[in-house]
Amino acid sequence: MLGILIFDHLNDLIYIKSDHSFLRHVQGMAIAQGLTSPSEISNVPAAVEPNLLVQLFSPLITSHQVMDVQFGNPYSSITCHDNTTIALQKYEGCVFVCVGRQEEEELQRLLNIVIRLTKLLVGPCVNVLRESSERRRVLGRLVKAWLRLVQQQQCYLVEA
Protein backbone atom coordinates (compact mmCIF):
# COMPACT_ATOMS: atom_id res chain seq x y z
CA MET A 1 0.00 0.00 0.00
CA LEU A 2 1.37 3.38 -0.97
CA GLY A 3 -0.18 6.81 -1.35
CA ILE A 4 1.50 10.15 -1.96
CA LEU A 5 -0.60 13.25 -1.37
CA ILE A 6 0.14 16.97 -1.54
CA PHE A 7 -2.11 19.43 0.29
CA ASP A 8 -1.93 23.22 0.03
CA HIS A 9 -2.13 25.70 2.93
CA LEU A 10 -5.95 25.51 2.84
CA ASN A 11 -5.91 21.69 3.14
CA ASP A 12 -7.06 21.28 -0.48
CA LEU A 13 -5.68 18.33 -2.39
CA ILE A 14 -3.17 19.34 -5.07
CA TYR A 15 -1.75 15.98 -6.11
CA ILE A 16 -2.30 12.27 -5.52
CA LYS A 17 -0.38 9.20 -6.63
CA SER A 18 -1.51 5.90 -5.19
CA ASP A 19 -1.96 2.23 -5.79
CA HIS A 20 -5.21 0.23 -5.67
CA SER A 21 -4.50 -1.00 -2.16
CA PHE A 22 -4.33 2.56 -0.85
CA LEU A 23 -7.56 3.48 -2.66
CA ARG A 24 -9.35 0.48 -1.15
CA HIS A 25 -8.03 1.43 2.30
CA VAL A 26 -9.30 5.01 1.90
CA GLN A 27 -12.69 3.75 0.72
CA GLY A 28 -12.91 1.49 3.77
CA MET A 29 -12.05 4.38 6.08
CA ALA A 30 -14.65 6.59 4.39
CA ILE A 31 -17.33 3.93 4.87
CA ALA A 32 -16.30 3.37 8.52
CA GLN A 33 -16.61 7.10 9.25
CA GLY A 34 -19.92 7.46 7.41
CA LEU A 35 -18.56 9.74 4.68
CA THR A 36 -19.89 7.49 1.92
CA SER A 37 -22.07 4.42 1.58
CA PRO A 38 -20.92 0.99 0.42
CA SER A 39 -23.20 1.23 -2.62
CA GLU A 40 -21.17 4.21 -3.92
CA ILE A 41 -17.91 2.23 -3.89
CA SER A 42 -16.81 0.26 -6.95
CA ASN A 43 -15.05 -3.11 -6.68
CA VAL A 44 -12.04 -1.96 -8.68
CA PRO A 45 -11.14 1.54 -7.47
CA ALA A 46 -9.81 3.75 -10.26
CA ALA A 47 -9.81 6.89 -8.16
CA VAL A 48 -11.13 8.29 -4.92
CA GLU A 49 -13.24 11.40 -4.70
CA PRO A 50 -10.88 14.25 -3.70
CA ASN A 51 -13.44 15.49 -1.17
CA LEU A 52 -13.19 12.17 0.71
CA LEU A 53 -9.42 12.55 0.96
CA VAL A 54 -9.76 16.14 2.15
CA GLN A 55 -12.28 15.12 4.81
CA LEU A 56 -10.17 12.18 5.99
CA PHE A 57 -6.82 14.00 6.07
CA SER A 58 -7.91 17.53 7.01
CA PRO A 59 -7.70 17.04 10.81
CA LEU A 60 -4.23 15.52 10.46
CA ILE A 61 -2.98 18.29 8.14
CA THR A 62 -4.47 21.01 10.33
CA SER A 63 -2.90 19.65 13.50
CA HIS A 64 0.46 19.29 11.70
CA GLN A 65 0.30 22.94 10.63
CA VAL A 66 -0.72 24.10 14.12
CA MET A 67 2.16 22.17 15.67
CA ASP A 68 4.50 23.79 13.14
CA VAL A 69 3.25 27.38 13.39
CA GLN A 70 2.30 27.59 17.08
CA PHE A 71 4.96 25.38 18.64
CA GLY A 72 7.64 25.07 15.95
CA ASN A 73 7.62 21.32 16.50
CA PRO A 74 5.62 19.49 13.81
CA TYR A 75 5.50 15.72 13.90
CA SER A 76 7.14 13.88 11.03
CA SER A 77 5.22 10.60 11.15
CA ILE A 78 2.37 8.71 12.74
CA THR A 79 2.01 4.94 13.03
CA CYS A 80 -1.54 3.63 13.25
CA HIS A 81 -2.86 0.46 14.93
CA ASP A 82 -3.05 -1.40 11.62
CA ASN A 83 0.69 -0.78 10.95
CA THR A 84 -0.07 1.98 8.49
CA THR A 85 2.52 4.74 8.72
CA ILE A 86 1.89 8.32 7.67
CA ALA A 87 4.93 10.49 7.00
CA LEU A 88 4.62 14.26 6.63
CA GLN A 89 6.91 17.05 5.45
CA LYS A 90 6.31 20.67 4.59
CA TYR A 91 7.62 22.57 1.55
CA GLU A 92 6.57 26.06 0.46
CA GLY A 93 3.45 26.02 2.64
CA CYS A 94 2.28 22.69 1.25
CA VAL A 95 2.17 19.49 3.27
CA PHE A 96 3.51 16.39 1.54
CA VAL A 97 2.02 13.18 2.91
CA CYS A 98 3.11 9.61 2.27
CA VAL A 99 0.95 6.75 3.52
CA GLY A 100 2.10 3.14 3.47
CA ARG A 101 2.96 0.02 5.39
CA GLN A 102 6.71 0.49 4.95
CA GLU A 103 9.12 1.65 7.63
CA GLU A 104 9.08 5.33 8.54
CA GLU A 105 12.57 5.86 7.10
CA GLU A 106 11.50 4.51 3.71
CA LEU A 107 8.48 6.80 3.59
CA GLN A 108 10.55 9.81 4.66
CA ARG A 109 13.11 9.03 1.94
CA LEU A 110 10.32 8.79 -0.62
CA LEU A 111 8.92 12.12 0.57
CA ASN A 112 12.36 13.71 0.21
CA ILE A 113 12.53 12.43 -3.36
CA VAL A 114 9.02 13.68 -4.17
CA ILE A 115 9.90 17.11 -2.78
CA ARG A 116 13.13 17.21 -4.79
CA LEU A 117 11.32 16.20 -7.96
CA THR A 118 8.63 18.79 -7.27
CA LYS A 119 11.29 21.48 -6.81
CA LEU A 120 12.87 20.52 -10.12
CA LEU A 121 9.55 20.36 -11.94
CA VAL A 122 7.66 23.42 -10.65
CA GLY A 123 10.06 25.24 -8.32
CA PRO A 124 8.38 27.02 -5.43
CA CYS A 125 4.96 27.11 -7.20
CA VAL A 126 3.62 23.75 -6.02
CA ASN A 127 0.05 24.88 -6.82
CA VAL A 128 0.92 24.59 -10.52
CA LEU A 129 0.43 20.83 -10.09
CA ARG A 130 -3.28 21.41 -9.47
CA GLU A 131 -3.78 23.20 -12.79
CA SER A 132 -1.34 21.35 -15.07
CA SER A 133 -2.27 17.77 -15.86
CA GLU A 134 0.94 17.43 -17.87
CA ARG A 135 3.13 18.29 -14.87
CA ARG A 136 1.12 15.94 -12.64
CA ARG A 137 1.66 13.19 -15.19
CA VAL A 138 5.41 13.90 -15.40
CA LEU A 139 5.76 13.93 -11.61
CA GLY A 140 3.88 10.63 -11.40
CA ARG A 141 6.11 9.02 -14.02
CA LEU A 142 9.27 10.27 -12.27
CA VAL A 143 8.13 8.91 -8.91
CA LYS A 144 7.15 5.59 -10.51
CA ALA A 145 10.54 5.34 -12.22
CA TRP A 146 12.38 6.11 -8.97
CA LEU A 147 10.38 3.46 -7.09
CA ARG A 148 11.17 0.89 -9.77
CA LEU A 149 14.88 1.77 -9.85
CA VAL A 150 15.19 1.59 -6.06
CA GLN A 151 13.85 -1.96 -6.12
CA GLN A 152 16.14 -3.04 -8.96
CA GLN A 153 19.40 -1.20 -8.26
CA GLN A 154 20.82 -0.53 -4.82
CA CYS A 155 22.91 2.43 -6.02
CA TYR A 156 19.77 4.61 -6.10
CA LEU A 157 19.47 4.24 -2.33
CA VAL A 158 22.82 5.95 -1.81
CA GLU A 159 21.63 9.19 -3.48
CA ALA A 160 25.11 10.65 -3.52
TrEMBL record:
<feature type="domain" description="FUZ/MON1/HPS1 first Longin">
    <location>
        <begin position="4"/>
        <end position="148"/>
    </location>
</feature>
<dbReference type="InterPro" id="IPR026053">
    <property type="entry name" value="HPS1"/>
</dbReference>
<dbReference type="GO" id="GO:0031085">
    <property type="term" value="C:BLOC-3 complex"/>
</dbReference>
<dbReference type="InterPro" id="IPR043972">
    <property type="entry name" value="FUZ/MON1/HPS1_longin_1"/>
</dbReference>
<protein>
    <submittedName>
        <fullName>Hermansky-Pudlak syndrome 1 protein homolog</fullName>
    </submittedName>
</protein>
<dbReference type="Pfam" id="PF19036">
    <property type="entry name" value="Fuz_longin_1"/>
</dbReference>
<dbReference type="GO" id="GO:0005085">
    <property type="term" value="F:guanyl-nucleotide exchange factor activity"/>
</dbReference>
<dbReference type="GO" id="GO:0016192">
    <property type="term" value="P:vesicle-mediated transport"/>
</dbReference>
